[in-house]
Design brief:
2 copies of one chain form a homodimer. Chain A is built from 11 helices and 17 strands. Chain A starts with a strand and ends with a helix. Helix content of chain A is 39%, strand content 18%. In chain A, the strands form 5 sheets. Chain A has a 7-stranded mixed β-sheet, with helices on both faces. In chain A, strands 3-4-5 form a 3-stranded antiparallel β-sheet, covered by helices on one side. In chain A, strands 10-11-15 form a 3-stranded antiparallel β-sheet, covered by helices on one side. By secondary structure, the first copy, chain A, is an alpha/beta fold. The interface between A and B is large, with 50 and 50 residues.
Chain lengths: 347, 347
């Protein structure tokens, strides 16, 4: 992605230091955070300095590789412990597990420390490259669903900063815009953390894509009035039957889209599919601190003494999903289609 | 309503001065604003210092009466001009028109200035008293719909401060609580203006009713998980066929309630029914300043250069509404039932 005319990824590693765009500081200030150990990586994921399914996945793979680089012996127990530490930072996003496993499997049984370090670093880099290429392909396939002069709704931020580059939900929009299609994006502000108004709006502004931020309450209104042609969101975990966990509110948008005959697409690569998860009821849902609802930028917005509930994700049952835009094309959110898709990665 | 152990109405008139709870200052500070002329009343409605369908209605009736008190001659043209000035402050809420007409009709053709002033004042007081009694009855009828140990969802604020006293949507909850039923309220925060987290939460806290604030995005999640037994909201205008305008997001909640077999009720008295309005498509929808979405409590939350759209209301088609809780009981949201209800007020 281009930011101030310079090309960036959301996360990368240089000389054993993980560098990442600080997503807590956006859109007010563009800063690169540097993480030098596993505790810092874990903390960055938990506080959401690092966020977005695929960026979290890359943080896992880079984090594990970084830990390997710091070793003075091929200590596989310590590596397993690090995988556990990083893997439990956030419960819903499956990419995290996928990213950690990718590196972990690459070094499994390796006892030569130098080779282990090389393998871990190479695996983390390959993981990032594959993620980027998957997102580019999602963009190409998704672009075919976007007609000229389209009004698109998206929820949360599944853009380049959430995915190393290109985005998942935003990749098709980015490529449609590059293709000189007219697109206009309704950006759900996405309470409580405002990833839409802070991050998606910022990405669209940087790319000169036309958009308007709306309160999450207003997307139903625009669907009802025929002003939304297609909904595209990202995903944090997709079950074998197509049920999809994504940012809280996604389920609401999907139900409203179905009610108003608006096609509703999920955009996600292989790393978001959890083949061990049969259906949405198996997906753990993170509940975050009530302060995210009661405060805004550290300023209290509710009366003292008020309590809040704050589920961070919801599960959209597959029956509300028109299709899943993957790096291999658009697939049905059905058990059969997903099995074939998953099988296509086994070689 | 009791606030700090003192009894209040949301708005009243004393010696020609309109006094009202300043709803912009809540929940941070409880202050009574004093309005001495029609321009101040109009401005208070526009800025939402005065808000809530029935409180706006009373502001209209008191505002017109106050203007009459200031006259030095029975100038019916000036009265008509004031009715127009106040009646165009906010386009969606029908109670405003109803409140103005109630006073206007009471003084129509009156040429004796003293009698005109007496009639105007008496009409405004009668309007307020009728509103309060209607809300009390809505509370009694609505209470019958609330089982012991209920989880209730409400959107925006249709409480005592929105309605002179008792509330519309909140009156049944208040009375159920007084009846010692166990109730727990999920309070939608209601972006962009946060009437839920600011005002409904504050009212519930003052009344010691159990509640949790949730992001508007989360109510679908709780319905999906069977944690909401009933939804009750207020209304800003009800058409003859039952289509109902209310705070933006109400339509979303109604669709989600239907999808999850959760009963969805509107609570409103006669003054919210617009007998000249055949269906929801006739209801004008106010679009407010984009700053309400781009800022929060005056603090920018979106990147510079970002635009927003901000429809303040939406229309819920009657097919999503289980019933309308009125001062004469719960009625069907159908043309026939509403016609009978409206006819019952003609004598």
């Amino acid at each position: 992605m281009k930011i101030n005319n310079k090309t960036y990824r959301s996360i990368w590693m240089e000389n054993g230091i993980i560098k990442t765009i600080d997503q807590l500081k956006l859109p007010w200030s563009f800063e690169i955070a540097e993480l030098t150990n596993r505790e810092q990586v874990a903390s960055a994921i938990k506080t959401m300095l690092i966020r977005g399914a695929l960026t979290i996945g890359a943080a896992g793979s880079y984090g594990l590789a970084q830990f390997c680089l710091s070793l003075t012996a091929a200590d596989l127990d310590a590596i397993a412990e690090t995988r556990e530490l990083l893997g439990t930072t956030r419960p819903t996003a499956y990419d995290l597990i996928h990213g950690l496993d990718f590196v972990f499997n690459a070094i499994k049984g390796e006892t030569n420390l130098d080779i282990l370090k090389q393998k871990a670093t190479a695996a983390a880099e390959e993981y990032a490259s594959r993620s980027i290429e998957s997102c580019r392909l999602i963009g190409e396939y998704g672009n075919k669903l976007i007609k000229n002069d389209s009004h698109i709704l998206t929820h949360c931020n599944a853009g380049a900063i959430a995915t190393i580059d290109y985005g998942t939900a935003l990749a098709p929009i980015r490529i449609a815009h590059k293709d000189e299609k007219l697109v206009f994006v309704f950006v759900d502000e996405t309470r409580p953390r405002l990833q839409g108004s802070r991050l998606t709006a910022w990405e669209h502004r940087e790319e000169s894509i036309s958009f308007a931020i709306i309160a999450d309450n207003a997307s139903g209104f625009y669907m009802q009035h025929g002003e939304i042609d297609i909904v595209i969101t990202g995903a944090d975990r997709i079950a074998r039957n197509g049920d999809t966990a994504n940012k809280i509110g996604t389920y609401e948008k999907a139900v409203l889209a179905k009610e108003n005959n608006v096609p509703f697409y999920i955009a996600a690569p292989r790393s978001t599919f959890d083949s061990a998860c049969e259906s949405g009821t198996d997906i753990p849902i993170e509940e975050r601190d009530e302060a995210e609802v009661l405060e805004l930028n550290g300023v209290r917005i509710a009366p003292l003494g008020a309590a809040a509930r704050n589920p961070s994700f919801d599960v959209t049952p597959s029956r509300y999903i028109t299709g899943i835009i993957t790096e291999k094309g658009v697939i049905e959110p059905s058990r059969d289609a997903i099995s074939s898709y998953l099988d296509s990665f086994k070689s």
